[in-house]
Amino acid sequence: MNLVIISASQRTQSQSAKVANYLADNSSQFSAVRHIELCKQRLPMWDGEEISKQQDDSDWLAINAQLQVMDALILITPEWGGTASPLLKNLLMMAQATDIGHKPVLLVSVVNGISGAYPIAELRMNAFSNNKLVAIPDHLIIRNVEEILNNNNIETEQITTRDKSIRHRIGYSLHTLFHYSQAMKKLRDSLQGNSYHNEHLYPYGM
User: Fold this and answer.
1) Which tens digit of pLDDT belongs to each residue from 135-165?
2) HSE toward the beta carbon, residue 139, CA cutoff 13 A
3) Which of 51, 57, 154, 192 falls 20 to 30 Å from 112 in CA-CA distance?
4) Would you give the end-to-end CA distance of the chain in angstroms?
5) 3-state secondary structure the chain
6) Which tens digits make up the pLDDT trace of 36-87?
7) How would CATH label the architecture of 2-201?
8) What's the predicted TM-score (pTM) here?
9) Cβ contact 65:99 at 8 Å
């Protein structure tokens, strides 16, 4: 099972990337793990035309190649002004169901305070209609992120109770995502082998 983790902060050296690295280091059940830090990629703002994805300096084709072969996805977004990252929303509009449809995604919101629920709600509501990703029921909200997940090798007794709790919850979420990835690979194979009459008429959600 191949896992892709996308951290979508618009800042380098971000807390979102820190969380992504922790998740990658603790995803040993997956056979391959790739972390894509969006702020370090060259992606055009999509204008709705296919050709705009393939500008000479665009990294879209390389990113999409990773999305095509993945079995599961983790999307990590900071909360800015109660919304998900514009970089992430742009990427999700560019991605097509033929490449990423019916693949499970774990949503992760990162915030240096006590909020963080709004980006999860926003993504669940309107991010997956056309690309047909499937958000699993579990999600993660990493609150007060600067205070936790700062050392992956630290002894358990040296971290706070809250840090222990979120690490355990992360382990559960990764375990759940892995089993979704196994089940949904069988689902994709079944859908590909049993296409519906004229299903090409419905490339987008209603």
Assistant:
1) 999 999 999 999 999 976 566 557 899 999 9
2) 22
3) 154
4) 30
5) CEEEEEECCCCCCCHHHHHHHHHHHCCCCCCEEEEEEHHHCCCCCCCCCHHHHHCCCCCHHHHHHHHHHCCEEEEEEECECCECCHHHHHHHHHCCHHHHCCCEEEEEEECCCCCCHHHHHHHHHHCCCCCCCEEEEEEEEECCHHHCCCCCCCCHHHCCHHHHHHHHHHHHHHHHHHHHHHHHHHHHHHHHHCCCCCHHHCCCCC
6) 999 999 998 888 888 878 777 889 999 999 999 999 999 999 998 899 999 9
7) 3-Layer(aba) Sandwich (3.40)
8) 0.94
9) no
As a whole number of angstroms, the distance between CA 118 and CA 123 comes to 9
Provide long-range contacts, Cβ within 8 A and 24+ apart, for 25-29.
25/152, 26/152, 26/170, 26/171, 26/174, 27/3, 27/174, 29/1, 29/174, 29/175, 29/178
Amino acid 156: pLDDT: 59
- Where do the domains of the chain lie? 2-201
Residue type, 68: Q
Displacement of CA 145 from its chain's centroid (Å): 18
